[in-house]
Amino acid sequence: MHKAMRGLILEVLTDVCAKGLPGNHHFFITFDTMHPGVEIADWLSDRYPGEMTIVIQHQYESLRVTDQGFSITLSFGDKPEPLYVPYDAIKTFVDPSVEFGLRFEAQDEDGDAPEAPMDVMAEPEKDAPKKDADVVSLDQFRK
Predict the structure, then answer these.
(1) Does residue 12 carry a pLDDT above 90?
(2) Verdict on whether the full-model pTM lies above 0.85
């Protein structure tokens, strides 16, 4: 499933590379800065040692898309910086203009999602007091 979702990112970025961003579309892409194959300036990896979110919207240059990842030049404080991001390094890919997003869970080297720790699935203690339910009004979230 992850391979198919990353294929969708490849398809979307290939289309943007050929035609530009249509309408109000823009992307927030969060990726693992320590992932093998990620190429970013040392000062960026020092500033974002675990993950980084980039925005592809108005100011980007040199978008290149391959089967393995994409490269792009973005401005950081009016200074252009080239980046290369393999698809496997992507944690989230979001297009807020159409309320679309993909999130990738961490995988082990075999491509399997890690198993949940056993204590997460443990049953509640039988002697524990029951908690009253919390009631939340959804009216504030309605449009």
Answers:
(1) no
(2) no
